[in-house]
Amino acid sequence: xxxxxxxxxxxxxxxxxxxxxxxxxxxxxxxxxxxTAEPLRITVAVDKTHLTHDMxxxxxxxxxxxxSELAQMDTFRHWGFVSGRDVDKMIGVTYSRSENGLVYxxxxxxxxxxxxxxxxxxLGTHTLFIADVEAAEVLAPDERSVTYAFYQDNIKxxxxxxxxxxxxxxxxxxxxxxxxxxxxxxxxWCKHPASDFVPLDK
Length: 202
Known about the structure:
Blueprint lengths: L13 E7 L2 E7 L3 E5 L2 E8 L3 H9 L1 E7 L5 H8 L14 E3 L5 E3 L3 E14 L3 E13 L9 H8 L10 E4 L5 E3 L19 E3 L3
Antiparallel strand pairs: 1-2, 1-5, 3-4, 4-9, 5-8, 6-7, 8-9, 10-11, 10-12
């Protein structure tokens, strides 16, 4: 089985926020879906290790900020790579509050949705929250929602190419990986000596 096949599913990336005992928090999720139109309901699956999960489970309410293609990598680092148990995620963030009192992001987003949980389903590592939509607003009608594919292709930094250190035989093209090249090295392909090798970067 190739788990990378799951990357071909079309889905977005969102900031899920919650509030409990005066503390705001949020995390990156990719599992928000509309499931019915009448009544208007959505689902979101949240990792049980996330503080946001516990806050939603305790309060029954959340907001979804729909990220746009203008989202920057720093946004994903801020909401996805650190825990709200360790840092205050609201520092340095541009936001407003919806009618339910929860935060939604106003920068790099095109809409938000407020949900009220009506049912929970235990998925093992995650909880699936089914929620009635209490409020929703389009913030930037001309900005396209970011998809996971767009994130992979345009936002996530590409790994720096690994420069191999080594030597190449000027006679046959054999590459010796490593540095330095032993003085007594003999090319295994053409049997020429080390003096016929040059550094790879030349």
